[in-house]
Amino acid sequence: MKIAIVGTGYVGLVTAAVFAKLGHRVSAVDIDEKKIKALKANKIPFFEPGLKAIVSEGVKKSYLKFTTSYKEALGGAQAVFICVGTPSKANGGYDLSFVFSAAKEIAKALKSYSVIVIKSTVPPGTTAQIREIIQNNTHISFDLASCPEFLREGSAVEDSFHPARIVIGTESEKAKSLLLKIHQAIEAPRVICDIKSAQLIKYAANAFLATKISFINAIAILCDKIGADILKVEEGLGLDPRIGKSFLQAGLGYGGSCFPKDIQALIVFAKRQGYDFDFLKQVELINKHQIDYLISKLRKVFGGELKGRRLTILGLSFKPQTDDLRESRAILLIKELKKERVKIKAHDPVAVPQIKKLAKVLNIKCYKNVYESIKNSDVLILVTEWPIYRKLDFVKVKKLMRQPILIDGRNFLEKEKLKKIGFIYEGIGSR
Question: Each residue of 105-118: b (16+ CB within 10 Å) or e?
């Protein structure tokens, strides 16, 4: 089947590569000439395990092409997937300008019937505006649909081939039939619904997962206050099939390009419908508080004064297996710590190149070698749970440090082992 993908950001590029791998003829269009030139040269603009291999394969077999021309990309396309960004506005609302611009360009390039599929995360009801834009710019017949994405950065390729569900929202039988055919090679439950429900499923899913994170972080603080162990509490909760283990790990909270943005958007959207979503505001508040909570632990360890202390941050990306720094807890933590006039060094297995510009602004020094970043530090703060940090030689680490203090912001390291070596260990709800 011939498919056009509009936007070659995270969602667009993964979607294009996966559809090509499944045997569809895919053309991915983007107005960023520099990005398209790089993709044609097999240069992937971000780190995502397994993506480069399937992009290369798709291009080599001529199943995947990149272009800056809508006309070229849409020629003969039976489905057009809108995969452009919907960034947050300053007030927490959603900027749909890229979606509307893409809709207009699609309309002008349409030559025959196509299903226009909104994969970008947009508020329920946006479809009416998109329909109007397209109708005002073409006389060609079309149908609209919504197929929200549920990709996790760091495992997006695997998630695409083995999703928990495929959501297809449309009021058109013709569009439904075509989208079922496009996804027929993927084994997963199908949720067939109206467009508004499909779009709300996306927001609700992210809001619920963020809620689990904030809930367990609130319980972790309570554990610290009474001397309970959050790791055992997590185990006890996670074994309940009604609750489950996923997203139930206490730590510094959630970040990334989705959860913070989508929760703010859902709060704003609800308000516009006349509903004050106080519950989600608390989820947000707890998440923001986690940074301050970790800093309070630091102050306690050092007797209140942090000025002049030398700190090493382990992990800069918002989660492992990605170089994405958007809403990274490490960056937010560094910004708050700089107010304390401390000296900060940092390490990350893949994100150091991405942070070069920020490093100058933040006045921190980043290292490719983890042991170099640790040398002469007063305290290590683990922020991102990269597997490499579990494998460190902590006897060597202790010798390199001025003081053997470790704050585990993800409860990720082997605390008993570290204590035996002689570290002062502090976790989040775990001592």
Answer: bbbebbeeebbbbb
Residue ranges making up the domain that contains 156 = 2-193
Whether 314 maps to a domain, the answer reads yes
Let me know: does 64 contact 58? Beta carbons within 8 Å: yes
pLDDT of residue 353: 86
* Cα-based distances in Å from 380 to 251, 390, 405, 414: 15, 13, 6, 14
Taken in order 350, 351, 354, 360, is the CA torsion positive or negative?
negative
277/266 Cα distance (integer angstroms):
8
Contact indicator for 264, 191 with CB cutoff of 8 Å: no
Model pLDDT, residue 430: 86
Give me the active site residues, please: 258
Q: How far apart are CA 84 and CA 30, in angstroms?
A: 9
- Contact between 211 and 179 under an 8 Å Cβ cutoff? The reply is no
Read off the CATH number of the domain in which 358 is found: 3.40.50.720
CB 234 within 8 A of CB 216: yes
Residue 262 has which token pair?
Answer: 């989508």
> Is 139 in a helix, a strand, or coil?
coil
Whether the CB-CB separation of 198 and 171 falls below 8 Å is answered with no
Does the pTM exceed 0.70?
Answer: yes
C-alpha closest to that of 220 among 245, 247, 244, 251: 251
Residue owning tokens 């605390």: 415
- Residue 256 shares a structural domain with residue 159: no
In terms of Cα–Cα distance, which of 308, 284, 378, 389 is closest to 347?
389
Alpha helices in 6-155 (DSSP H): 10-21, 33-40, 51-60, 70-74, 97-109, 126-135
Q: Which residues of the chain have pLDDT under 70?
A: none
Distances (CA, A) of 175 to 3, 48, 78, 227, 352: 13, 31, 10, 57, 44
pLDDT at 356: 81
pLDDT value, residue 197? 98
Residue 2: per-residue pLDDT: 98
Is 290:251 a contact under the CB 8 Å cutoff? yes
- The whole-angstrom distance between residue 43's C-alpha and the CA centroid of its chain comes to 21
For residues 331 and 356, state if they share a domain. yes
